[in-house]
Amino acid sequence: MANTTLTLLAAGSLRSAFLPLVAHFRQHTGLAVDAQFGPAGLLRERIEAGSPCAVFASANAAHPQALLQAGLAQECQGFASNQLMLTARRSPDNDGLDWLALLSTPRLRLATSTPGCDPSGDYTWQLFARIEARYPGLGNAMAGRAQQLVGGRDSLSVPPGEIAGAWLIRQNLADLFIGYAHYGPALATCDDLRTLTIPAPWNIRCDYQLARLRADPAALALYRFILDDVGQGYLRQAGFMPFSDAA
């Protein structure tokens, strides 16, 4: 088992948690892990096309469950939760506006990830739907002007070490970005950016799910390590919330 290299395909938002987690796992077990990150929907397509994968960590439940239903996964389990957050360019004209007022301002360029390819985009469109249900016309207007700049097949490549929302705003490609809330602490010290919490009645619960694709002991060891206390500790340190079966 010590000579086995495990391929871990993981949602890009998990990078800050999984890089130290994988290093700890290798030190603890002697097992090498090739961790590859990207939009979970595109990673699922790679698996379905035959790409090797021992464990798949998705930013939603739909992709692992599809692999399970297709007979490509041995088992699945929720392992972390997240929420959405708005990142905005600081400006005297905008700094007094709350999250909904910012999203409602047509002159501000709104960027998102790509629905279908990336669960972050799917969750964002769920947010638009909630806004539309309360304020008819407003949510649809947001969805209509949103630019899907990252997380797709032909999207811009965010440089390594950069957070998508901050990078897009600093490249003057957007004024606003809807992304994951676990990036909030890393962005809180940026003088040129604001991070705004989306309140609970509006926010979307983003449940992450793990799929084990290989049946061998090495794959099972990695799967269990992510779910156990040490692995969960790395997720908490990176800003993720514990997974709960409660809706």
UniProtKB/TrEMBL annotation:
It holds the Pfam family SBP_bac_11. InterPro entries: ModA/WtpA (IPR050682). One of its GO terms (biological process) is molybdate ion transport. GO terms for molecular function: molybdate ion binding. SUPFAM superfamilies: Periplasmic binding protein-like II (SSF53850). This is ABC transport system periplasmic binding component. It comes from Klebsiella pneumoniae subsp. pneumoniae (strain HS11286).
